[in-house]
């Protein structure tokens, strides 16, 4: 997996970006995530955890 930076828009001379990570389908299946699931995240240095939103 790799973090990808994508240009989003320019506003008042400043560029804005979004960051994306492609997660392999087998990892999504192991986590029981499906298309359209609402997720929440918890971040610490060097780690991001994703969970289904309750």
Brief description of this entry?
The protein is mainly beta and 54 residues long. Helices cover 13% and strands 54% of the residues. It has a two-stranded antiparallel sheet. Strands 3-4 form a two-stranded antiparallel ribbon.
Q: Number of helical segments?
A: 1
Task: Sum up the overall morphology in one term.
Answer: elongated
Distance between the termini: 26 Å
Which runs of at least 5 residues are low in confidence (pLDDT < 50)? none
- The gyration radius over C-alpha positions equals 14 Å
Oligomer: single chain
Question: Structural class of the helices, strands and pairings?
Answer: mainly beta
Into which percentage range does the β-strand content fall? over 45%
**How many beta-strand segments?**
4
Helix and strand element order: EEHEE
The strand order across the widest sheet is: 1-2
Largest sheet: 2 strands, antiparallel
**What value does the average pLDDT take?**
95
Helical content stands at 10-25%
Structure description:
This protein is mainly beta and 54 residues long. The chain has a domain at 23-54. It is built from one helix and four strands. It has one helix spanning 25-31; strands at residues 3-11, 14-21, 39-44, 47-52. The mean pLDDT is 95.
């Amino acid at each position: 997996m790799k973090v990808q930076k994508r240009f989003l828009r320019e506003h008042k001379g400043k560029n804005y970006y979004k960051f994306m990570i492609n997660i392999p389908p087998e990892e999504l299946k192991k986590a029981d995530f499906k298309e359209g699931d609402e997720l929440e995240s918890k971040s610490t240095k060097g780690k991001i955890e994703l969970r289904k939103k309750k």
